[in-house]
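Okay, any thoughts on this one?
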Amino acid sequence: VGIGVAAPNASAVLEVASTTKGFLFPRMTEAQRDAISSPATGLMVYQTNNDEGVYIKKSFGWVQVI
């Protein structure tokens, strides 16, 4: 599936392209993030409080990546 792209890359399930806008991660507090039931490994969210930033779910827990 492509958004803003005529021919999405075949190796991607989703390709988003823009020269005027960015990608917005789902935003939530740490408590909301921790309340996600059985988060998939690789899930990414933007935490809006405490240690604000982008987090990814790894096999051993949530890790801040940005």
Remarks:
- Residues 11 and 33 are 29 Å apart (CA to CA).
- The chain is about 10% helix and 30% strand.
- The chain has a mean pLDDT of 97.
